[in-house]
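In response to reviewer comment 3 from the previous cycle, which asked for concrete evidence that the modeling workflow produces usable outputs, we include below a single protein chain processed end to end. The sequence was submitted unchanged, and the resulting structure tokens are shown without manual editing.
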Amino acid sequence: MKGYFASHFFNDAMFRWTEEVASYIESETGINMYVPQRNGEINDKRENDDIITDIKIAQADTLELKKANILFACLDGLAIDDGVAGEIMGFGLIKEMEKEYNIPDRKPRLIIGIITDMRWQGTGDNHLYRNLMILGKVKEHGYIVEGYPGEDDYKEKIIAIVKNFEEKYF
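The workflow returned the following structure tokens.
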């Protein structure tokens, strides 16, 4: 089973969180995970900035989305990261087109959205808005897992969903 971990990993805190959560999922499930921040050919701005292009990034990440069975998508941030939103829509459309066009070797696919921003659980003025089209695509093809800062129980919820998916399709 292959996974793809989408996040906005361009600052230290999110880089570390992405690696921590992706590594945890890998260790608990054995998933072969693609984590874009690990792909230095397209994301090592210090060493490869002169050869990294938008087309190379799009091609490399799209190839891995096509291979993946599960998209893990971080929904945290001021807004859902543009790249993460694109990955969610792309992955959902791949699944839909495989079914619509009766692709014989289509993969079982699932999206797990992860949100740990405490404002998500607020109400009224304290509620964090998220783009409804992106949330809808996540829910249409999977689940939103909620966490709270400083607590790790959301990771166990993710593992339970992955194991149920694996039992059903693999």
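The mean pLDDT is 95. We consider this sufficient to address the reviewer's concern, and the full set will be provided in the supplementary archive.
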